[in-house]
């Protein structure tokens, strides 16, 4: 099958990772093309055919639409898979120039309502909540992730805690920092991520005199090694449409705690859930520190289901959806 993926590049975050992992996996047995910004090049393998396109400011430019139509005609894909609303509308509008009508699949990666998803021939939701805002006939394909073999890192004896998320208020890192000011054990806490809240979080860390225990580490290319070497990973998001970092936890972390949001609301038992306030998390962490092995055993049952979240499973589900849509549109 010849598959064309399109991605409106902003930064390498959740949507971009899903797209990259799909392209890399599908390219093992299919002819895969990706239309996006050249900045994605370090993340894709050599079998993925990268076509550099800037979707940012060209949605209604007829010359740009004609250019994209020519690219599509030259590739002549069996299916087009769009990962954002902006380029979905562009791809839909190119149909006035393309030689044939190619089926369009669009994945809804967020919970923000977007009427433009009606332009897709098949809409894919990542969770049940997402499906509710899409048009009738949409399907659910839950996100997966490519597994990387982790390595154990050297560390001291302090209880090691990790959060991996964008530095944004909705991700709740401020909740973790405030909670750690209340715990009754020694610890080290690393936050892996970037974002607009960096200075605010650093000021909070300083005001609580935790600068020797908490570090803003930016992004890491070997996050799996840090998760594999930690004692507990925390997701404190106030809201998540899915939460890919939870799959990181299932793959690599010995223990994962989360608020009740996104995929964690479906897969984690109550023992591993905390409320979105610092006191709730502090109490949970104190109990975990005292009864660590018991909590690890609880999470071990979740880790045993990791194959459900493989990139292979996700890719196979999409390939089946592509084939069914192509048959239906003939």
TrEMBL record:
What are the record keywords, sorted?
A: Transferase
Every copy of the Glycosyl transferase family domain together lies at: 151-298
Q: Does the keyword Transit peptide apply?
A: no
Note the InterPro entries from the entry: Glyco_trans_1, Glyco_trans_4-like_N
- Matching Gene3D superfamilies, A to Z? Glycogen Phosphorylase B
Q: Where is the Glycosyltransferase subfamily 4-like N-terminal domain?
A: 14-136
Signal sequence span is none
GO MF, one example: glycosyltransferase activity
PANTHER family reported in the protein's UniProt record: D-RHAMNOSYLTRANSFERASE WBPZ (PTHR12526:SF627), GLYCOSYLTRANSFERASE (PTHR12526)
- Return the protein name: Glycosyltransferase, family 1
Identify the species of origin.
Campylobacter iguaniorum
């Amino acid at each position: 099958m010849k598959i064309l993926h399109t991605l409106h590049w902003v930064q390498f975050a959740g949507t971009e990772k899903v797209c990259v992992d799909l392209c890399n996996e599908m390219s093992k047995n299919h002819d895969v093309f990706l239309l996006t910004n050249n900045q994605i090049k370090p993340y894709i393998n050599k079998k993925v055919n990268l076509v550099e396109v800037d979707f940012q400011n060209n949605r209604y430019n007829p010359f740009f639409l004609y250019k994209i139509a020519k690219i599509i005609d030259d590739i002549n894909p069996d299916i087009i898979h769009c990962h954002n609303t902006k380029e979905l509308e562009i791809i839909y509008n190119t149909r006035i120039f393309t030689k044939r009508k190619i089926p369009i699949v669009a994945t809804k990666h967020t919970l923000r309502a977007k009427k433009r998803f009606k332009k897709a021939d098949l809409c894919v939701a990542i969770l049940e909540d997402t499906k509710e805002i899409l048009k009738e006939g949409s399907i659910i394909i839950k996100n997966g992730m490519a597994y990387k073999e982790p390595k154990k890192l050297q560390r001291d004896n302090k209880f090691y805690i990790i959060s991996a998320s964008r530095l944004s208020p909705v991700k709740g890192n401020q909740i973790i920092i405030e909670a750690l000011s209340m715990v009754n054990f020694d610890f080290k806490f690393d936050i892996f991520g970037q974002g607009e809240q960096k200075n605010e979080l650093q000021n909070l860390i300083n005001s609580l005199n935790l600068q020797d225990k908490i570090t803003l580490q930016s992004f890491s290319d070997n996050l799996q090694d840090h998760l594999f070497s930690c004692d507990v990973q925390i997701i404190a998001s106030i809201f998540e449409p899915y939460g890919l970092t939870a799959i990181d936890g299932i793959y690599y972390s010995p223990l994962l705690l989360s608020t009740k949001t996104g995929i964690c609301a479906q897969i984690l038992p109550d023992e591993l859930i905390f409320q979105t306030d610092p006191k709730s998390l502090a109490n949970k962490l104190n109990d975990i520190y005292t009864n660590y092995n018991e909590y690890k055993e609880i999470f071990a049952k979740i880790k045993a289901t990791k194959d459900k979240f493989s990139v292979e499973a996700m890719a196979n589900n999409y390939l089946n959806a592509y084939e069914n849509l192509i048959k239906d549109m003939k």
